Amino acid sequence: MTSPGRVSRSRLEKSVARLRPSPGVVASPPERRRGGLGLRRQETLSGLLFISPWIVGFGAFLLYPILASFYYSISDYSVLERPVVVGLANYRQLMGDEVFWKALGNTIYYAAFSLPLGLVLALSLALLLNTGVKGMALYRTIFFLPSMVPTVALAILWLWIFNGQYGILNYLLSMIGLTGPGWLSDPAWSKAALIVLALWGVGHAVVIYLAGLQDVPVHLYEAADLDGASPWQKIRHVTLPMISPVIQFNLIMGVIGTFQVFAVPYVMAPGGQPARSAYMYAVYLYDNSFLYLKMGYASAMAWMLFLMVLILTLVALKFSSRHVHYGG
Amino acid sequence: MRYLLPPAILLFAFLAYTVPGRPRDDGLIHITYWEKWTGFEGDAMRAVVNAFNTSQDRIRVDMLTVSQIDQKMLLATAGGVPPDVAGLWGYNVNVYADKGALLPLDDYMRQAGLGPSHYLPAYWNIGYYKGHVWALPSTPATTALHWNRTLFREAGLDPDRPPRTIEELDEYAKRLTKKDAHGNLIQAGFMHSEPGWWNWAWGYYFGGKLWDGKSRITVASPENIRAFKWVQSYARKYGSTQLQIFRSGFGSFSSPQNAFLSRPPKVAMVVQGVWMHNFISKYSPGLDWAAAPFPYPKDRPDLANTTVAEEDVLVIPRGAKHPDAAFEFIKFVNSQKGMEMLCLGHRKNSPLSQVSDEFFRKHENPYIRVFHELAKSKNAVSTPPLGIWNEYRDELSAAFDNIWLLKQTPEQALGAVQQRMQAKLDVELARRRMRDRALAASSQGVAR
């Protein structure tokens, strides 16, 4: 199986060879050759042609929707009628919308809990899975399996696990003497239910941490052993600093992901029931665009989300640059 | 030359998908009809479609079962490739008509000699909005109180005498509610949240309205507050947490674990629609049940026979290729013969003002006359024809949750809805005016 790089280079050499003037023709400097492009420009053109499928895809599926979405966010657009530009009216309306603030608050609450918990859980699992116990590959598969289950199937399954009366979770809690809350039917616990479900999908992060852990040089651990470090000290002073880029990566991806959570809340708590306690930002965005037919308003929400996640990501990058060590 | 093969294949595939196929030249107009129904309801409509196809030789209807039909029809219309006929829900009509997604049917109706006298007023009004006809009924429904006669007998109540006033309903509910030794509910007499599909309508039973018909939201009126105080009284009486936990254990509606149908039954009385008989005979055939109009407050006998009148409708989306043929089909469905065939198949009542005795004789629902009389009642209500109804309904849903969970008093919850929805209505009306002005100005500019 030849690698793609090799194929393109040989073809590039072939096309370049075709452009060189044959010995018999009077060789004039390529730039002044009449009727033809220079060699450099030919190369550029070939390069562009090669990546043209990606450019077309990017333009049609990413750039155009982004620009269109910005245009819709400054207009009044209901999908069926043509958009009418209204300036910043959508954004101003957003600021005064109580449901917007409620949804944003819910999402921030969700992110504030699921991010750290997910990080700690994934890291702990990865550390455990890295210890070299027998049957490690089997355990890794088992821990990764939950994140492979389709989100909607997962949500419907957990709807019953979280059931206040017949759910397994409350049954298990009752076995240790606690009465479980109504979970998804109790406004105080509905977000907690979603957070527990978010932890179900840490498999992706675990795999990434495992890869990072493999990269930690062994000689550092040996040096730590020589200095008489305890396992906890080894984790704190060797492992964590060495995988800090991975932690930063997972943190940023986590921020971007948790703020956009949609599928699970949409299936488990449509409309944010009960009493909008589990109303997430992306679900409200969806309701605005396809249920209330306020596509312009929803586009404004999308751009607000983009700005917020961008600011948070920059803050996270800046804050962690002090703690992240790229080395070894 | 070999490297030309992949692009050639791609080009061929592209053309094969985008170049439209040759139109069927069998001399017939083929119209596409998107409908949401599956199972026996889909079969009933298919029978009507076959009857139409065989009754004439100009038009063929191709029926397609589509899920999430309101969204799909919307997107298809926005994309310029709508079906010729679509089967929507009645509450979609206002919103879609406001956005210009539907074709007005006034001219077709006039030519066909059809008009409001052909229909029951409750059902005519659903399709009639801002002076035009946008939709015609396919199948209607009304709601009534359904009760479990066995449970009535067990509680020492006359199984043939339903509660007639709200106060009687409260009394009956108390006698039909059972708790176990730990104080958990095992049977509820009546629960507002079961099935919870018409939580916006509780005010109407007490004489409240949601909108004055023009520009004011009236959700915080005294009648509405009284209604939701009554709703909240159940949460206070039986324990909000108890009810929540009890309710979370209910099975899905369309299953033998339905709260009304399960054995043992979880709820003794429910508000349900004319279709409930179908689910009873499917999931709990031995159930001894009956239906009667929902009670009215003792001091308001004028509110007797209040019911929610809903219907599925047929519309012609804007941009449909064969609107004339589409209306021919809709006209057939709305004829007495076509409609009774469809409604018998669905086992629902008929929206037409003329109903044959044979319809009642053949009908499988033993209480069909109750639903029919309710449809003629002057207190039959439907969703207010507001363009922002979806948002209003969601606000009311959240308010109901807050009231039911004892998080807010009805005054607080409805007051909040009043404030927010009035603001939204003002914005919506101003937006409409601005759009109309902008469009008028641009068309004047174009004309000049």
Can you walk me through this structure?
The complex is a heterodimer of chains A (328) and B (448). With 328 residues, chain A is mainly α. Helices cover 67% and strands 1% of the residues of chain A. Chain A contains 15 helices and two strands. In chain A, helix 4 crosses helix 9 (203-214). Residues 1-6 of chain A have low confidence and may be disordered. Chain B is built from 18 helices and 14 strands. Chain B has a five-stranded mixed β-sheet. At the A-B interface, helix 14 of A face helix 3, helix 11, helix 17 and helix 18 of B.
Quick gist of this model?
Chain A is built from 15 helices and 2 strands. By secondary structure, chain A is mostly helical. Chain B has 448 residues and is an alpha/beta fold.
- C-alpha-based Rg of chain B, rounded: 25 Å
State the helical fraction of chain B: 40-55%
Shape, per Cα inertia axes of chain A: flat
Strand order of the largest sheet of chain B: 2-1-3-13-6
Low-confidence stretches of chain B: none
First-residue to last-residue Cα separation of chain A:
32 Å
Greatest interface by residues involved: A-B, 29 and 33 residues
Total strand segments of chain A = 2
Q: Which H/E pattern describes the elements of chain A?
A: HHEEHHHHHHHHHHHHH
> What number is the mean pLDDT of chain A?
85
Low-confidence sequence ranges of chain A: 1-6
Mean pLDDT score of chain B: 90
Q: Can you list the strand order of the major beta sheet of chain A?
A: 1-2
Percent of sequence in beta strands of chain A: under 5%
Task: Report the sheet with the most strands of chain A, covering strand number, pairing sense and barrel closure.
Answer: 2 strands, antiparallel
Structural class of chain B: alpha/beta
Name the shape of chain B in a single word.
globular
Helix content of chain A: 55-70%
